[in-house]
C-alpha cells in the first residue's frame, strides 16, 4: 500500500482571494439582508407565514446566533407593508355589569379619536348640565312643583284649623308638632280653667279634640305621600331637563358612528347613565379638579375616578401602522402576553376599573405576527400555557395572576375577551423543539411548521457576496467603519473556520458581527479609515491571546516536562494523541501521551480509563473496536494469547470520544511488534473494525496545538500530524502553520487506513497477507504475528507444565 505524501500547503487552508470579490469595500453594498444558504428554512418561513389555517404557527429552530429572528423580521418587513391595518380595540364601561368591561373594535385610527370625543363630551357635560339646571325655566317649574306641595299641605292644615275653630277649639303649632286646646271668649283655656268646666262639657270637648287628632293624623299620613309625589315630579322634571340637555351631544356622537352598532349601544347606555346620574355633574368636582394628596386616581393625577365610566380605554391604536403589526416580545411573561389588570392603593384599599386594563403582546400583534423566544417563554410561569390557550380558543382573555393564585382577596374585573387572529413565531434551539414535540401533546397541534436553520451554508461566490452584504448591514446599523475587500476576505475565511469545513461558511452570524466590532476597534487604534485585513487578523490574534492563559500554562508544563510529551525520539508502545478542550466559546488542542503494554493473557484489551470509570462510553466503544480489528487480522488461525492495557498518561479528568482510537491502535501494534514509533508525529482519527481511519472533529485545533508545542521546542523538518483523509476538506489552519508546511518544517499526512499510518510512524511497511495467512517478516504485521505465535507457544507450554 503506497504511503501518502504530506499535503501541499495550498490544501491546508482555502483562502478567499480578495480579487474575486466584485467590490472594493462594503460601502459599495446596499446593506440589505439577503437570505442565502438557508433555502430550506426560507421556504418554511414563506409557507408558515402564508398559510392562514389554524395551528400552522411557526417554530424557527437552530443554534442561537444564526440569524433566525433577523431572517424572519426581514421577510415580514417586506410582506406586512401590503397587508391591511387591523382594527383598533378599546375597553368601555359595562353599565349593566360593571365587573365585565366590554371590548369594542373600531377601524384603524378611530379608537383614539373616539376616546378624545368622549373626553370632550365629558367636559361639555360639566358646562351644559349646570346651565340647564340653573335656567329660569327650570327654576320656575321646580318652584311650581314645590309650591303645589306646600299649598296642598297648607290647605289641609287650614281646613282642619277651620273645622276646629267652628267647635271652639284652637290648633296650636308647637316645636314638637301640633296640639289642640279649647277656647272661650277668644282665649285658650288653661288646665285649671278646663277642669272647672262641667263634666259633660269637658267630655264633649275631649271627643271633639279626639276627632280633630284623627283628622290631623290622617293629614300627617298623607304628607309623605305628597312628598314622594313631589319628588317623583321633580325627578321626572330633572330627567326631562337632563335628557333634553345631553341629547344633542350624544346625537352628534352617534351620527359619527352610525355604522358601528357596538358604539351606538355604548353611547345609548352612557346617555341613559348620564341622565340618571346628572347630579354628579352639578357638583363642584370635575374631571380636572385636583384631589387631595395621596388620592391619586387610576385616570391619572388630577382626574376624578367618578367619571371614568364615561371614558374610553384604548388598548390598541393602529393609527400609525404601516400594515399588519410585527411584535417582538423580549420578556414574554404571562402579563406581557395576555395583558394585565392593574390596581391602585387608596387609603389602604386596592382599587381598579376598566381604565387600568393594560394590553399584552397578543393585543398589539392581533391581526399580524408575534415573535417570541421559546426558552424565555418557557422560563416565565404560566406564560406558555396562556399562549397555547389563546391560540387554541382564538381569543385573548385577561386574567389577574393574583386572583388566579388566590393571592388577592379584592374584587377584580373580568374583561370581555378579544377575538384573536395572529401568527405566532417561536425561535429556539433544536433540542428545545424536539423536547416540546416529544413531551407536549399540544405543541405539534399548534406549531405545525418548522423552519430548520442550518449551522452552515455552501461556500460559493454568491454566498460570499451575501456574507459581505451581511457585513455591510452590521456596519451601517452599528455605525462602524466599512471593510475593504481584503478584510471581507479574511472574515469569510474566519466564517469557514467556524463552520469546520473549507467549503462551507458558518451561519452563526453573531460571531461574525462580534469579529467586525473587534476589528473596528483595532482599525480605530491603527488610524485606518477602513477596516483592513491586518485589523481583522489583529482582532483574531487578540481574541486568541485573551483566551490563551490555560493553553499557555499547559504548554509551559509540556516544555518543563511536568507533562511528558516526547517530540524528538522513537519509543515503543507510545504515541502522541491529540485532544480538544473547550473553555467558554474558545477551543484549543493539546497533545496527550498514550501508552500500550502487553503481556500473556486471553486476548483482551484493557482500557484503564474505563476500568477506573474515567472513560466515557464512546471512548470505551473505540477501544473495544481495536479488539475486533486485531482478532480479524491475527486471530483467524490461533487465539490471541495476550493481554494489553491502554491508557492516557497524566489524565486527571474524564476521557470521551473515539478520535484517539487510531492512535491507541498504533500504540498497541507498536507494543506487540516491539517496533518503535516516531514521537515527532502526533495522530488523530477514529478507526473501525476494518482498519479504516474515520473523520473526527476539531482537526484544526488539534493540529495547531501540536504545532505550537513543536515551534517552542524548535521545528526540525520532521514534525507532523497524521489526520484522516476525510478531514482534509475541514482544514482551515492558521497562516503560521501553512507557512511552516510550505517551507517543509511541518507536515500533515492524510491517512485512509491504519496500514498507511503505521508505515509513516515506524518507517516499516505494514505488510500484506500471504496466501497462507502469514505476513512478511520485516513488516509491522509480520512482527505482530510472530510475537503472537511466540506468546501462544509460551501460553501452551505453561498450560502443559501446569497440567503435569
CATH architecture of the largest domain: 2-Layer Sandwich
Helix content: 40-55%
CATH class of the largest domain: Alpha Beta
Could you say how many structural domains there are in total?
A: 4
| Quantity of strands, as a count | 30
- Average pLDDT number: 87
N-C termini distance: 47 Å
Counting helices, strands and paired strands, the structural category is alpha/beta
Count of DSSP H/I helices: 26
The low-confidence runs, each spanning 5 or more residues with pLDDT under 50, are 288-303
**Which descriptor suits the 3D outline?**
elongated
Radius of gyration: 48 Å
What percent of residues are in strands?
15-25%
Characterization of this structure:
The chain has 804 residues and is an alpha/beta fold. The protein folds into four domains: 14-33 and 454-546, Helicase, Ruva Protein, domain 3 (Orthogonal Bundle); 38-85 and 321-453, P-loop containing nucleotide triphosphate hydrolases (Rossmann fold, 3-Layer(aba) Sandwich), CATH 3.40.50.300; 110-317, no CATH class; 556-799, Ribosomal Protein S5, domain 2 (2-Layer Sandwich), CATH 3.30.230. Helices cover 46% and strands 16% of the residues. It is built from 26 helices and 30 strands. The chain has a seven-stranded mixed beta sheet, with helices on both faces. A five-stranded parallel beta sheet has the order 8-13-16-1-17. Strand 21 and strand 22 (586-600) form a beta hairpin. Helix 22 crosses helix 26 (780-803). The radius of gyration is 48 Å and the shape is elongated. It starts with 38 loop residues before the first helix and ends with a helix.
